[in-house]
Design brief:
Blueprint lengths: L1 E6 L2 E4 L4 E9 L5 E6 L5 E7 L6 E3 L7 E6 L4 E6 L8 E7 L16 E2 L3 E6 L1
Parallel strand pairs: 2-11
Antiparallel strand pairs: 1-3, 3-8, 4-5, 4-9, 5-6, 7-8, 9-10, 9-11
């Protein structure tokens, strides 16, 4: 089992930056990702990375603004979000997969463990 606890969400204004963190504990895992769910919409992919961070993938809507990375010493996954827009509003979830594939795992169904989510609200 892997336990994931997100933090860092909050209310910000458009153009601000925010860093989400996801503290991981339990068994070892490989690739990791972030997803989000806007009010009234289905959960969607945001960003994903291979275990070592050698390859990363981003949704077109966040490319160039968000950065996914991992602190192996602290066992923390992070999502740095810059130039936030109102459409970035939603509950953000970190997810991990046991697998360590060569490419990032971007599918929801391919993730093995999920955090509880942290709410990000971006006002205009």
């Amino acid at each position: 089992q892997v336990q994931l606890v997100e933090s860092g969400g909050g209310l910000v204004q458009a153009g601000d930056s925010l860093r989400l963190s996801c503290e991981a504990s339990g068994r070892t895992f490989g690739n990791y990702a972030w997803f989000r769910q806007a009010p009234g919409k289905e959960r969607e992919f945001v960003a994903a990375s291979t275990w070592r961070g050698s390859t990363k993938s981003y949704a077109d809507s966040v490319k160039g603004r968000f950065t996914i990375f991992r602190d192996n010493i602290k066992n923390t996954l992070s999502l740095q979000m810059n130039s936030l827009k109102p459409e970035d509003t939603g509950v953000y979830y970190c997810a991990v997969a046991v697998a360590t594939t060569r490419l990032p795992i971007t599918g929801e169904d391919d993730q093995d463990y999920w955090g509880q989510g942290t709410l990000v609200t971006v006002s205009s």
